[in-house]
Specification:
With 256 residues, the chain is an alpha+beta fold. Among the domains are: 60 residues; 118 residues, Sandwich (Immunoglobulin-like), CATH 2.60.40.10. It is 42% helix and 23% strand. The longest helix is centred in the middle third of the chain and has 52 residues.
Length: 256
């Protein structure tokens, strides 16, 4: 019961008494922590002093052997001078021994050049172009009009196209482009008979189209190329031919 009485003789409540005990416990813990910190600090100071002593001993030993290190330095500096005196002879020997190697490496290159120049090129064989056939050509004939009055001569155009994938030849060139005109079964006019002249072969490239223009003077040249006889009004049929390939007939009407 005496613990619950304060210094003035009054009774202390249990709550106040518990608080006092807690405060006293905290003060004791703080004292212990301060003591531990003080001991750790002292130990750390003692550890720092040991390396200092070791450092001082090391520096003292280094000073004692300073003369010995200088002598080693002098001997080391003397050796490069000796090596420098030997350098000119070594470099000259190396340069002299290197020169034949360079000349030897250049010789195979010079000897290889004539081999490349002597290599012959194989000549290309020119492709042979064949004459145009009905499988190659498409031939058509057109007239400038459907009917012709007196004094009007039919103007005709022969168009031929190489529909194949390869070039072909029209043998005789323009001389092998012909127009034939008939009246029923009777022969009336043939262009190549009196107008065509010998010509060289003409090459028609694959897919290309050529056109030859012709004119009919209404002459009846079945009687001969020098005749002056003219045809009579009527219906006529004209057919073009290129390298033996014929076109479809075209109707020509002569009215006067």
């Amino acid at each position: 019961m005496s613990e619950n009485v304060d210094s003035h003789g009054g009774e202390v409540s249990p709550e106040v008494y518990r608080r006092r005990r807690i405060v006293a416990l905290l003060v004791l813990v703080l004292v212990l922590l301060l003591g531990i910190s003080l001991v750790s600090w002292l130990v750390g100071r003692g550890g720092d002093s040991e390396p200092t002593a070791a450092t001082s001993s090391t520096s003292a030993s280094a000073e004692a052997f300073s003369d010995f290190s200088q002598r080693a330095t002098e001997s080391a500096t003397a050796s490069p001078s000796d090596s420098e005196s030997a350098d000119p002879s070594a470099s000259s020997d190396e340069s002299e021994s290197a020169e034949p190697t360079e000349s030897a490496s250049q010789e195979p290159t010079e000897s290889a050049e004539p081999t490349e120049e002597a290599t012959p090129e194989s000549p290309e064989t020119p492709a042979v172009v064949a004459a145009c056939t009905p499988a190659d050509l498409q031939v058509s004939l057109t007239a400038d009009r459907t009917s012709y009055a007196a004094g009007q001569n039919p103007a005709l155009a022969v168009t031929y196209t190489n529909a194949s994938g390869n070039p072909c030849l029209v043998t005789g060139g323009v001389a092998n482009v012909d127009v034939n005109i008939t009246s029923g079964p009777a022969q009336v006019f043939n262009y190549a008979q009196c107008h065509a002249a010998p010509a060289e072969d003409a090459q028609v490239e694959a897919g290309s189209t050529n056109t030859t223009s012709l004119s009919w003077d209404r002459s009846l040249n079945v009687l001969g190329c020098g005749t002056s006889t003219k045809i009579q009004p009527g219906h006529y049929w004209a057919t073009a031919s290129v390298n033996g390939v014929n076109s479809q007939p075209v109707r020509i009407v002569v009215t006067g």
